Amino acid sequence: MIYFASPCHTHTMLLSSQNLYIIKNHRHSFKVSDQKVNVSEVLRSIENVIEDVIMSLSKNKAPILILRNRSDWGNIHFTEAVGFQMISNCTTQQIRSDSPKSATKFALCLKILSIIYKMVQTNTYATKRDIFYTDTVLFGNQRVVDNIINDISCMLKIPRRTLHILSTSKGCIAGDLSYIEEDGTKVNCTCSTTTPVPSNVEGIRNLITDAKFILIIEKDATFQRLLDDNFCCKMSPSIIITGKGVPDINTRLLVRKLWDTCHVPIFALMDADPHGIEIMSIYKYGSVSMSFEAHRLTVPAVRWLGLLPSDVYRLNVPMSALIPLTKEDQSKLTALQARPYIAHESAWKKELDIMETSKMKAEIQALTSFSTDYLSRIYLPNKLQFGGWI
């Protein structure tokens, strides 16, 4: 048995050679594998690394985890075809078992890796929240667990699902779509009711739709409003989907799967503010922290349908319906203007410039100043018919 005691924590980690996993420093191409990794390969990789750990200990050397810096912009390469991708020779950080600053994280990594090994070995699954609740005092908060799991997936170049870790879905979908889930459950989405995004998007099959377009909606309130207005029925066949703000992984996976399967236009309906634009860019080009999975999560074909800052002034939306940019908004706007994709999105830059000059933002609800159903009855139909997207 191997004991690792954290000097910063009252808990002592007890791990055996059968459930211990250390992340190795891979030096080759940085891309999570598209191919399914079988159980024996995952387990064997763990066992190989354990040998390295034992070898370090036998030489009186403290084991070290080498983690890629997932949030470092210097490690990101941007292409229009994929979005943000992590470079192969990215910078790393050492998580040392003998350092007071990193010993706690080192121990927590081992704890989660031991859980993963056991789940793969026994063919069981757990959500990130399940893992957190195995020892809430030890982990402290959910974000710690989430970050470590992403680090593990990044280092192993194996999707979390293959590591038997499930993600909780918060997104919803409606419209002309049916599919069969991995367990055989048949799902029929409709134009008038909400269907939760499945927790195992990669496992769904027999996806059937006649949709002519897909509309990504930033907010759940707007999504529900379009359902109440029978938008999907009036604009049938179509699919609408929302991640309820910043999208979770499953919602992004589903949008990507729909794009790969349906080959239809995908539009984004966001607030005309920096936060909405950033959310849209996550669907389209991905996020820095998940750049190692960009090819599975991004949909570069997404087009910005609205609400455009230029629409706000073209439609003469009343000033009383507009909101001044906050300092936080202005900081985010400045950061967006420096993003590498802006150089490839000249129309986006013009919209950002309009927002910067006016120092005003508008939520989609601002359109209700014309009528309660203006969005579904006039704005969206005209946009879709006459090509009002960028």
From TrEMBL:
Keyword presence, Acetylation: no
Catalytic site positions: 133 (o-(5'-phospho-dna)-tyrosine intermediate)
Keyword list, A-Z: DNA-binding, Isomerase, Magnesium, Metal-binding, Nucleotide-binding, Nucleus, Topoisomerase
InterPro entries: Meiotic_Spo11, Spo11/TopoVI_A, Spo11/TopoVI_A_N, Spo11/TopoVI_A_sf, TOPRIM_Topo6A/Spo11, WH-like_DNA-bd_sf
Source taxon at top rank: Eukaryota
Required cofactor(s): Mg(2+)
Domain Spo11/DNA topoisomerase VI subunit A N-terminal stretches: 105-165
Residue ranges occupied by any Topoisomerase 6 subunit A/Spo11 TOPRIM domain in the UniProt entry: 213-384
GO CC entries: chromosome, telomeric region; nuclear chromosome
One GO-annotated biological process of the protein: meiotic telomere clustering
Compartments where located: Nucleus
EC number, UniProt record: 5.6.2.2
Family: Belongs to the TOP6A family.
Protein name: DNA topoisomerase (ATP-hydrolyzing)
